[in-house]
Every structure is written in structure tokens, then in C-alpha cells.
Design brief:
- This protein is an alpha+beta fold.
- The protein has one domain: TT1751-like domain (TATA-Binding Protein, 2-Layer Sandwich), CATH 3.30.310.
- It contains five helices and five strands.
- β4 and β5 form a beta hairpin.
- The relative contact order is 0.24.
């Protein structure tokens, strides 16, 4: 299974169940200096609010404090574009999952501030390592 490609993110399919993928991505994010500040359990929310059954799906808001500080120092309102979103969801086949990350260059390009370009590239390199090491 190859996850869909988007112009704003990159993903990796894994031959592990959802909970294992979630655990692994958190570990790899931590190795790159990111903590998970926010977490949205989409499956639980859709069940609770709409009584809809949905596959296991989580949105993680990952933050690397030194990099966030650099971004905020370059542009005060860049906080509107933080944190870095990472999604983990159960794949189409049982026992598989997908992890995807928002391309930080695409995310920060909205600001139109050249001072954020290098930072976006640094965050991208870290997120690419997260995906590669899963």
C-alpha cells in the first residue's frame, strides 16, 4: 500500500498496527527534539459528536521548542502556523498504518517571510528522518 502523495505533506505506510505506529512516531519525534503538545483522537471525536464509526486516526501537534523560538523571533504571528502536524491512522489493510507529516516549508511559506525559509528546511530534514526511521 502506498499512501497518497500531496503537495503539502509526505507519508509512509507501515506494516504495523495503528498503536505501534503511534508509539514509534512519538519516539522518533522525541529523538529529533519534538514533543507532542496537542493530540486529537479523530475516531473518538467523530463517534462522540456525530455517532460515526471511523478508523483509528490521530492528529499530533509536534513542537521543537528551540525551533519554535527561532520562528517566533523571526515573525511574531507565525504561531498561527505552529505546531507541526503529524497524522497517524490505521491503513486500509488490517495490521497496517500510515504516518504523514505536513511539509514545514509549505506551512511556513504562507508567511512570505524569507527568514523562515532556512528554518523550514531544517524542520523538513528532521521530519524526513522521523519518517525514514519508523
Amino acid at each position: 500500500m502506498t499512501p497518497p502523495s500531496t503537495p503539502y505533506g509526505m507519508s509512509r505506510a507501515l506494516d504495523v498496527p495503528f498503536e505501534e505506529a503511534d508509539r514509534r512516531v512519538r519516539e522518533e519525534l522525541q529523538k529529533e527534539g519534538f514533543g507532542v503538545l496537542t493530540e486529537i483522537d479523530v475516531q473518538e471525536t467523530l463517534k462522540k459528536k456525530l455517532d460515526v464509526d471511523f478508523r483509528p486516526y490521530r492528529i499530533l501537534g509536534a513542537c521543537n521548542p528551540p525551533l519554535a523560538h527561532k520562528a517566533l523571533s523571526a515573525e511574531e504571528q507565525v504561531g498561527l502556523l505552529l505546531p507541526c502536524n503529524v497524522i497517524v491512522y490505521a491503513g486500509a489493510s488490517e495490521g497496517t498504518s500510515v504516518v504523514a507529516v505536513l511539509d514545514p516549508r509549505a506551512q511556513l511559506s504562507v508567511a512570505g517571510n524569507p527568514a523562515l525559509d532556512e528554518l523550514g528546511s531544517e524542520v523538513l530534514a528532521r521530519m524526513e528522518r522521523v519518517l525514514a526511521n519508523l
